[in-house]
Amino acid sequence: MNSNNWGGKRAGAGRKKSLFERKGRTFRLTDAEFLEVKPMIEAVRKRTEEAAMVAMKSRQ
Length: 60
Known about the structure:
Blueprint: H1 31-59
C-alpha cells in the first residue's frame, strides 16, 4: 500500500494547553440565579487570566 499523510500525529496539531486546569461542573440553576452568577464567573476568569499574563511577562 502507498503511504499518505492522512491521520496520525502531526507537530502543532490539536488544542493548545490552557493557562489553568478547568474541570467541567454541573449546576442546576434557575434563570434568575444564572443571571446573578454569570457576571461573577466572568469577573473571576478575567482576573485570573490577567494575573497569569502579568506573571508570564515578568518572567521574560
